[in-house]
Amino acid sequence: MCARCGTVAEGDTVPVTWLSAVEDGRRLHFCESCARLHIRAIESRLDSLWW
Predict the structure, then answer these.
(1) Is-above-0.85 flag for pTM?
(2) CB of 13 closer than 8 Å to CB of 26
(3) Is 42 exposed, middle or buried (0-12, 13-18, 19+ CB in 10 A)?
(4) Domain segments of the chain as ranges
(5) How far does Cα 39 stand from its chain's mean position?
(6) Cα–Cα distance measured from residue 15 to residue 23, given in angstroms and rounded to the nearest whole number
(7) For a designed S-S bond to 46, which of 1, 3, 9, 41 qualifies (C-beta 3.0 to 4.6 A apart)?
(8) Can you name the residues that pair with 22 across neighbouring β-strands?
(9) Percentage of the chain surpassing pLDDT 70?
């Protein structure tokens, strides 16, 4: 499930087009749409709470 918008991935695994990040010791997954929308903040290594 996307940590930003709640989109659920099909199947048992995370799609390769999704982004994975570790924040505060937790692994978070972001769908392709959220990753594209916030790519500059992600590349700047800002926590998802900020963006």
Answers:
(1) no
(2) no
(3) middle
(4) 1-51
(5) 10
(6) 20
(7) 41
(8) 27
(9) 94
The position carrying tokens 């499930």 is 1
Structure tokens at 41: 């903040």
Take residue 8 and report the two structure tokens written for it: 């659920």
Phi, psi dihedral angles at 43 (to 5 degrees): -65, -30
Question: What tokens appear for 38 in the block?
Answer: 């916030």
State yes or no: pLDDT of 36 exceeds 80: yes
12-24: pLDDT as tens digits: 888 999 999 888 8
Average pLDDT over every residue of 24-31: 92
Q: Are 1 and 26 in contact (CB under 8 A)?
A: no
Q: Where are the beta strands (DSSP E) in 1-51?
A: 19-23, 26-30
